[in-house]
Amino acid sequence: MEMREFLKHKIFSIVSDVAEFENVDAYVIGGYVRDIFLNRPSKDIDIVVLGSGVDFARKVARRLRTTKVSYFKNFGTAQLKYHEWDVEFVGARKESYRLDSRKPIVENGTLEDDQNRRDFTINALALSLNKRNFGELIDPFDGVNDLKRGIIRTPLDPLTTFSDDPLRMLRAVRFATQLNFDIEPKTLDAIRQMNGRIKIVSAERITDELNKMMTSLRPSMGWFLLDETGLLEYILPEFVALKGVESRNGISHKDNFLHTLEVLDNLSAKSDNLWLRWAALLHDIAKPKTKRFIQGQGWTFHGHEFVGAKMIPSIFRKLKLPLNDKMKYVQKMVQLHLRPIVLSQDEVTDSAVRRLLFDAGDDIDDLMMLCEADITSKNDATVKRHLANFRIVRKKLKEIEEKDAIRNFQPPVSGELIMDTFGIKPCKEVGVIKTRIKDAILDGEIHNNFVEAYNLMLKVGREIGLTPIKIDQRYVVPENK
C-alpha cells in the first residue's frame, strides 16, 4: 500500500512545507493512519512534531489562511479546523504517572517516546510528513500485523500501560467492540488484574467510551468483555445483578443478563438511536429487585417495568448521562416496554390502543421496535406467533391514530374554558373534568373533537355540583341526540 496516496490533501503538503522551512520533524500518527489500513474514511488528523505543537500549528494556520484554531498552551496542543477536517497538533512527549492520578508528568520527547506512550499498537502507527522520507511508515510495535490479525495489544507491558492510564482498559474494550477485534490474551489478563484502577477515572470519561461502544454494530460484545474483565462490577453493578439462573422445584427463569444483551443486539440491528439502545440495555434492570417465586406460578417479576423506570435517574446520574429529555425518553421506554406485549397476547381493544398511543406519543414506533427486539425465545414458532401478533397491534395503532388522532393529543377543552364556563378559580374540580374528558376519549365514549368534549364538560360539571354561568349555545347538543 503506497502511503503517499493517502497524504495528497493540501493540509499534508502545507505541514510538510512548514516542517521543511522550520527544520522540524512532523508526523501524522494514530487513528488517521490506523483507518487507512482499515479502509475507514477519517477526517480527524493528529500531527506530532518534534518541538512546540502550538507554534507549529500557528504557522500552518497562517499558510492555510484560516483563523479557526484553538490553542491549549497548558497542554501543549492546538486544534485547527479546515473545511471538514479536524487537525490536532502536539509536540512529541514522554509521560510518567503517579498511582493516584491519570494526569501524566509530561516532558519533551522523541517520536519513539511518543509512540511508546500510545495506548495500543494499532494507534502507534506514524507516517512521516518530512520531505526526505514523505509517506514512510514508522511501525515499531508491528501494529500493521495486529490490524491484519484483528488484535488489540499494548505497545509496552500492559500492566504498566493500564496502571498509568486505567481508561485504556475501557478503550481496549471499546476498540475491540467497534472493530470486531480480539484483545490479545496478555493484554486481557492485565485488564483483569488492574480492573480496580478504573475507580480513579471520571464518570464522564467512562461514559464517553460506553457511548462509543453502544453505537457499534454489535454492542453486546463490549458488555460481555466488561463482564469478563471484571470492569462491569465497577461501572454498572446493577447490570451484573442480572446474571445467572435460579431454579426452585425444578422451575428455572432465564438468564436475564444474556437475554438483555440479545435484546440489545436485536434492537441495534434495526436502529442506531443511542438512547433507544440504552433503553434496551436497561429495560429489565429491576428484575433482580422484583424477582419472586410463587408456588403454582413459578418465577415472577411483577412491576419490574415501574421499578426499573424509577432506577433510571440514579443510573444516569451515576454515569453522568444527561438528566434531560434523553433520560425521560429512556425512562418512558422502560416503563412502557411490556404494554405492547400484553396487547399482543390479548384481544386488542380500541381503548387499550388509544391509551398506549396517548402514553407513548411520538415514541410509539420506537417502543414497538424495542418490544419486537424483546422476543428472544429459542422456539421459532413462539417468535413467529409474537411477531404476527405485533403486526396486528401495529395495524390497530395505525387505524386508531388515523381515526382518532390520539398521538400526543391535548384534550379539546382547556382548563381556562372550564373555569370561564363555571365561574371558578383553579381547583380540583377543573382537574376532575379534564381527566373525565380525557378518559372518555381514550375509552371511546366520545370522539376527539371540541363539540363532544364541550358537552361532556357541561354534563360532568353539573354532576359534581357546578353551575355553568356562560354557555356557548353554538356547541350545545341536546342529550337525546
What does this structure look like?
Residues 180-239 form the tRNA nucleotidyltransferase/poly(A) polymerase RNA and SrmB- binding domain. This is HD domain-containing protein. One of its GO terms (biological process) is RNA repair. Belongs to the tRNA nucleotidyltransferase/poly(A) polymerase family. By secondary structure, this protein is of the alpha+beta class. Among the domains are: 3-149, Beta Polymerase, domain 2; 153-235, Orthogonal Bundle (Hydrophobic Seed Protein), CATH 1.10.110.30; 415-475, no CATH class. Helix content is 52%, strand content 11%. The chain has helices spanning 10-22, 31-37, 53-64, 111-116, 143-149, 158-164, 167-179, 185-194, 203-214, 220-229, 232-235, 237-240, 256-268, 274-282, 287-290, 304-319, 325-336, 339-345, 350-360, 364-373, 380-404, 415-422, 428-442, 450-463, and strands at residues 26-29, 44-49, 69-72, 77-82, 85-91, 93-96, 105-108, 126-128, 137-138, 151-152, 182-183, 247-248, 251-252, 292-294, 298-300. Strand 3 and strand 4 (77-82) form a beta hairpin. Helix 14 (274-282) crosses helix 17 (325-336). The longest helix is centred in the last third of the chain and has 25 residues, at 380-404.
Going by CATH, what is the homologous superfamily of the domain at 3-149?
Answer: Beta Polymerase, domain 2
State the name of the first-level CATH class of the domain at 3-149.
Alpha Beta
pLDDT average, as an integer? 90
Q: C-alpha Rg, in Å?
A: 30 Å
| Poorly predicted segments | none
Under CATH, the topology of the domain at 3-149 can be stated as Beta Polymerase, domain 2
Shape: elongated
Largest sheet, in brief, is: 7 strands, mixed
